[in-house]
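Design job #97: recover the sequence.
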């Protein structure tokens, strides 16, 4: 009976672990479904071929106000361009400052390698990326 109980606990533990169980919830940023392909051969995205570089991508229906895509050197990260720590304001569109994104409303700086800030309640809202040759598929 003890072995059966132990097997049950181990099975439940493994079933609860999934790479898609990541929570992307934020009370200030709504969830919008989108998908965009970024071709690294195009001039506006070619900088993403180099480590520690980022681009902002704007367009209808891309996150809340647009995206930040960042080359970490070992992969890519995509974030919402809106500051995740307060409601929408004119000043809450993040600006790129080196390897950080800064909110001009309150001066919060987020490291693009991790999406974290020392003083923020919420990290940057992160989106999924699939790499298909020279194309990055960014989606939610």
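Job complete. Output follows.
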């Amino acid at each position: 009976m003890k072995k059966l109980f132990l097997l049950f606990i181990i099975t439940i533990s493994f079933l609860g672990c999934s790479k898609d169980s990541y929570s992307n919830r934020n009370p200030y940023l709504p969830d919008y479904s989108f998908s965009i392909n970024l071709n690294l051969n195009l001039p506006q995205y070619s900088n993403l071929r180099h480590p520690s570089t980022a681009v902002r991508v704007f367009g209808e229906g891309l996150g809340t106000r647009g995206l930040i895509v960042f080359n970490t050197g070992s992969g890519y990260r995509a974030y919402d361009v809106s500051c995740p720590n307060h409601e929408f304001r004119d000043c809450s569109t993040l600006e790129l400052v080196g390897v950080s994104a800064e909110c001009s409303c309150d001066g919060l700086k987020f490291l693009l390698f991790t999406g974290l800030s020392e003083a923020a309640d919420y990290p940057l809202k992160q989106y999924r990326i699939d790499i298909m040759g020279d194309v990055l598929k960014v989606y939610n």
